[in-house]
Amino acid sequence: MSESAASENYQIVVTIGKHAIVIFPGEEVDLGIIGDDEVIATRRSLTASGIKLEAFRLKANDPMLS
Length: 66
Known about the structure:
Layout: H1 2-7, E1 12-16, E2 19-24, E3 27-33, E4 38-47, E5 50-59
Antiparallel strand pairs: 1-2, 2-3, 4-5
């Protein structure tokens, strides 16, 4: 199930106040406190061992979001 879910890029974002946790199949990523000027971003990449899902915080004006 988790490999199938990863291939579909399923994710859940849990927020408790401004604290954010991203849940992927088989992994949880605690992003901590998300600032008012930040957004949550996720990325999916293909590695030698399969699909890797990543979550991270970015400033809302970060050029990577364009």
